[in-house]
Amino acid sequence: MDFELSETQRLIRDTARQYAKDVVAPRARQTDREHRFPADLYKQMGELGLLGVNVPEALGGAAAGAVSYSLAMMEIAAACASTSVGMAVTNMCAELITQFGTDEQKDRHVRRLVSGEAVAGAFALSEPHAGSDPGAGKTTAVKDGSRWILNGTKQWITSGAYAGVIVVWARTSNDGNKGLSCFIVEGGTPGLTAGKPEEKMGLRGSNTVSLTFESCAVPEGNLLGKLGDGFKLAMTALDGGRIGIASQACGVGRAAIEASVRYAKERKAFGQPIGDFQALRFMLADMQTQLSAAELLAWRAAAMKDQKRPFTREASMAKLFASEMSNRLCDRAVQIHGGYGYIDEFPVERYLRDARVQTIYEGTSEIQRVVIAREVLKAAG
Ligand SMILES: Cc1cc2nc3c(=O)[nH]c(=O)nc-3n(C[C@H](O)[C@H](O)[C@H](O)COP(=O)(O)OP(=O)(O)OC[C@H]3O[C@@H](n4cnc5c(N)ncnc54)[C@H](O)[C@@H]3O)c2cc1C
């Protein structure tokens, strides 16, 4: 067991940290207040290797592995959770096409994703009536000569209105989960329209829209993976995606601690810094301990992914623990700030709003427990 980072991991973390400090953090408050999708950052993130951290160099990626990806996510999320979720989904789409795509698909789509040329990637699995249960999806894809015709509506799609490359799940037969297939749809394809952006409690700089497909035709070569393998592809992508959201949660949690420590040293009550009260010290001690535990879970899942070992259970445990942890920490951070924690002059109210969705997307906490329990029982034979 080695807790030291490799040179590559340190380089990626430091690059992301510097970029987060210089560019992402200074605009995070405006991004949130004005619900402004930071489209202009994607080219820059692409140039820094942050959109394809775990994608081979031959496809334009940084080839730095899943632990590096987790480290980079933590840094960007600590500065701006909205920016980090778009980064996460773009990495997820690039990795999925790298793993399951044909040479032509990789060449065309992965390069555009990791360079930021496509702006962002979008992952269109959820539907208005089917989130936790994607096998109940109703969007269809019907073969018509050399094209697939897609019809249906996807819901909650991160970066959906901006994404140049969208991975879409659609039903190609009525055979339950085996009837799902996966397609690549380029942004701007006729028949594809984005709904009005959702007014969200947090992550307001992230674009969340419904996507409607009305006789939307894509070439037959846009089927990703094998016909009927869509469910398998979704589960594979979500395993990796959960490391991303666990890392996002750790980044936001860390930012909440850093803000709390700054405030606890400056703010005085009863003639002394509030950080001298044992009540607050114990809060900070618990916060730091929970954060460190979550980071270790995220990095272990990522290390197992890098070692090409099964990591489904570890990714779900990391996502479950880290997302619940960041909600607790952000709530405590608001408490430490007193009344100032409740107004947007200090960042902790934003952290709390941003953290809230982490126990919901990429599989709710309840679904993580379903996955973890299944793996625990399976391992017991
Ligand atoms: C801001 C945001 C961004 C998102 N981005 C994307 C995206 O880019 N792409 C995408 O495809 N989706 C995205 N989602 C959708 C997200 O993944 C779903 O909201 C989530 O999976 C939950 O699905 P649901 O909302 O339909 O809730 P439901 O599935 O209806 O769940 C409602 C409640 O029932 C519980 N529940 C459901 N099934 C079970 C069960 N078997 N056991 C125990 N409890 C259960 C849930 O845990 C939850 O508490 C996003 C959502 C949000 C809010």
Please explain how this structure is put together.
With 381 residues, the chain is an alpha+beta fold. Helix 1 runs parallel beside helix 3, helix 3 packs across helix 6 (230-266) and helix 6 runs antiparallel to helix 9 (348-356). The longest helix has 37 residues, at 230-266. The chain has a 4-stranded mixed sheet. The protein has helices spanning 7-33, 41-47, 65-79, 81-100, 103-115, 230-266, 278-306, 312-336, 348-356, 365-379; strands at 121-124, 140-144, 147-158, 165-171, 180-186, 192-194, 208-219, 223-224, 268-269, 272-273. It has 3 domains: 7-120, Butyryl-Coa Dehydrogenase, subunit A, domain 1 (Orthogonal Bundle); 123-228, Butyryl-CoA Dehydrogenase, subunit A, domain 2; 231-379, Butyryl-CoA Dehydrogenase, subunit A, domain 3 (Up-down Bundle), CATH 1.20.140.10. The chain is globular and about 80 Å long. Flavin-adenine dinucleotide binds next to strand 1, strand 3 and helix 10.
- Overall form: globular
Characterize the largest beta sheet: strand count, sense, and whether it forms a barrel: 4 strands, mixed
Tally of individual helices: 10
Q: What small molecules does this complex bind?
A: flavin-adenine dinucleotide
Strand order of the largest sheet: 1-4-5-8
CATH level 4 superfamily of the largest domain: Butyryl-CoA Dehydrogenase, subunit A, domain 3
- Strand portion, in percent? 5-15%
At the first level of CATH, the class of the largest domain is Mainly Alpha
What Rg, in angstroms, do the CA atoms define?
A: 21 Å
Low-confidence stretches: none
Series of secondary-structure elements, N-terminal to C-terminal? HHHHHEEEEEEEEHEEHHHH
Our count of domains comes out at: 3
Q: What name does CATH use for the topology of the largest domain? A: Butyryl-CoA Dehydrogenase, subunit A, domain 3
**Secondary-structure arrangement, i.e. CATH architecture of the largest domain:** Up-down Bundle
Mean residue pLDDT: 97
Number of strands: 10
First-residue to last-residue Cα separation: 27 Å
Strand pairing plus helix content: what structural class? alpha+beta
DSSP helix fraction: 40-55%
